[in-house]
UniProtKB/TrEMBL annotation:
The chain crosses the membrane at residues 6-21, 33-53, 65-85. The keyword Transmembrane helix applies. Pfam families: DUF3593. The keyword Thylakoid does not apply. This is DUF3593 domain-containing protein. Keywords: Membrane, Transmembrane, Transmembrane helix.
Length: 105
């Protein structure tokens, strides 16, 4: 099994994770947006990798401006996940029963 096949197959567990977290309505909304942002990052990285190969004859990791843009998007998604859970932890520490950023409904 090659790395492309493994990559493609790895999307199914992640999609299942997103589906269950969305259906549970218990995930902080901001964190869930971050997890969806990670999926968007993957979707954008694929054409960027193809472009890097066609235009520069090299992998995405070696085309700095494309790779940096993709990584910046992933960083933003990760920040949303952290801020979503941080807000929820702060809410729980204060003993509040109202979710910090209103969970997905």
């Amino acid at each position: 099994m090659n790395k492309e096949t493994i990559f493609a197959l790895s999307l199914f567990p992640y999609l299942a994770f997103l589906w269950f977290m969305t259906k549970s309505k218990r995930m902080p909304k901001l964190a869930l947006f971050g997890f969806y942002g990670t999926l968007v990052f993957v979707a954008l990285t694929i054409p960027a990798g193809i472009y890097a190969l066609k235009a520069y004859g090299d992998t995405l990791a070696n085309v700095d401006w494309l790779h940096g843009g993709a990584e910046a998007f992933l960083t933003l998604a990760n920040i949303l996940v952290v801020l979503g859970f941080k807000a929820e932890i702060d809410r729980l520490k204060q003993g509040s029963t109202t979710p910090a950023d209103r969970t997905v409904e």
